[in-house]
């Protein structure tokens, strides 16, 4: 037992015994702890009160706060969890996985009644969405395995492909409007408003344009670096390409155009561009939005020539809301039914699957207004959970952008996070009445295959960047996972700060190049004597 107890412990035991024999005098050794006096106190009380002393009332015992459960301990524990190397990676996987699970559940709840009434299969829409979710998880798996150099090289091809698809879509839609048709096709390609159908596969080129803009814009801005302070560097080729995308996307889909605008603003903000650039960008954006609202009277988007401008009607409804009783069955049906769903839900909702407004009362309940179904069936608590998950996603994305050391990764992470968060804000703000209705889907949750696949691909790129954080990369290399885990899930990221070592100079090379070394043989010219470098012969002979 001599190896267990220290010298201080032995002193404490001796002092306790001495105090018991010496009449209660407190005497502690220098190494004794504060527990010695507490152990002596019962020995003093055992002798009873002194004669003539007034008895004292017992003081109520005050329980000491539990260690680790007070406010300071909780904050310290949370700070310790956030300081771990792979916290960004696990936070990203957790919030994205929960949002995807909530999305599949709510798509089934919002579409089961209508699918059963039309086709007799209540799970038709959720099955299709689950197939796209599996494809999106595959895209996530591929994207988290790719290095930053691959993303840099993919930016330009994806941008050209998205622009080509948008041009084909707009040409076919314009032809359909001229011929007074709902859709137009050319061979296996068919266009309908915002979607292209290629051989039975439904695509939305505007979703691909978001991801392409992230990759190409981050690579361009990272390559220009400090030269972005000059207007001519921004004008070639960033602003022309952005303007082209705004026209091609915004003509049919104003909400996606606003999302692209937020993406570009986040990209330039992360690059540290001067505020005057944002002022000019805001002015140009407002002018462009005004033009896109005006062309809706000519047939842009869902509008029709000669009919009411639906985009202007949405703006007017937002700035001057009408009386719901006068327009609930005509001009503001979706606006009115969305508010009614939120009011019907209350704090805890009516229960999952028990909502009534999805019985074909609320237009686009499975897509643009799925947040209203969440509010009706899950109540305020469900809405707070969804908002909290998007807040965690925003924190994690900007945390990754702040921690990575590569400029391209920092810019791309900021752009992807701005894209997803701004899209969620625009959708939820339109549902609850804080923003105009734009018809933009809610990421992870709304029904839509192309949007879900591209969103999960963006999350996969963020996961790749999270593993490339300096602390995360060092931790993964310090304790590498098994080989089969690296093959199946993701390879090890490169270590930060690794540079190629310079080549070892040859043995005979000194500080002076060999061509300038002095010759020590007999052919060396004596010091101070200049060799004859004059050209021999006459000028005519030299010309010959």
Automatic annotation (TrEMBL):
InterPro entries reported for this sequence:
FtsW/RodA (IPR001182)
Q: Which reaction does it catalyse?
A: [GlcNAc-(1->4)-Mur2Ac(oyl-L-Ala-gamma-D-Glu-L-Lys-D-Ala-D-Ala)](n)-di-trans,octa-cis-undecaprenyl diphosphate + beta-D-GlcNAc-(1->4)-Mur2Ac(oyl-L-Ala-gamma-D-Glu-L-Lys-D-Ala-D-Ala)-di-trans,octa-cis-undecaprenyl diphosphate = [GlcNAc-(1->4)-Mur2Ac(oyl-L-Ala-gamma-D-Glu-L-Lys-D-Ala-D-Ala)](n+1)-di-trans,octa-cis-undecaprenyl diphosphate + di-trans,octa-cis-undecaprenyl diphosphate + H(+)
As for membrane topology, the entry says: Multi-pass membrane protein
Q: Name one GO cellular component term.
A: cell division site
* EC primary class: transferase
In this chain, composition skew of type Basic and acidic residues spans: 514-544
Task: Write out the entry's keywords from A to Z.
Answer: Cell cycle, Cell division, Cell shape, Glycosyltransferase, Membrane, Peptidoglycan synthesis, Transferase, Transmembrane, Transmembrane helix
TM spans (from-to): 89-110, 130-146, 158-176, 196-218, 230-249, 255-273, 280-300, 369-395, 416-437, 449-466
EC number(s)? 2.4.99.28
Q: Where is the composition biased (Low complexity)?
A: 49-58
Q: List every stretch annotated Disordered.
A: 1-58, 495-544
Question: Which Gene Ontology BP terms does the record give?
Answer: cell division; peptidoglycan biosynthetic process; regulation of cell shape
- Its primary localisation, in coarse terms, equals membrane
GO MF, one term, reads: lipid-linked peptidoglycan transporter activity
Indicate where this protein resides in the cell.
Membrane
Q: Which family does it belong to?
A: Belongs to the SEDS family. FtsW subfamily.
**Function as written in the Swiss-Prot or TrEMBL entry:** Peptidoglycan polymerase that is essential for cell division.
Q: Which PANTHER family match?
A: CELL CYCLE PROTEIN, PEPTIDOGLYCAN GLYCOSYLTRANSFERASE FTSW-RELATED
Name assigned to this protein = Probable peptidoglycan glycosyltransferase FtsW
Which organism encodes this protein? Answer: Micromonospora violae
List the taxonomic lineage: Bacteria, Bacillati, Actinomycetota, Actinomycetes, Micromonosporales
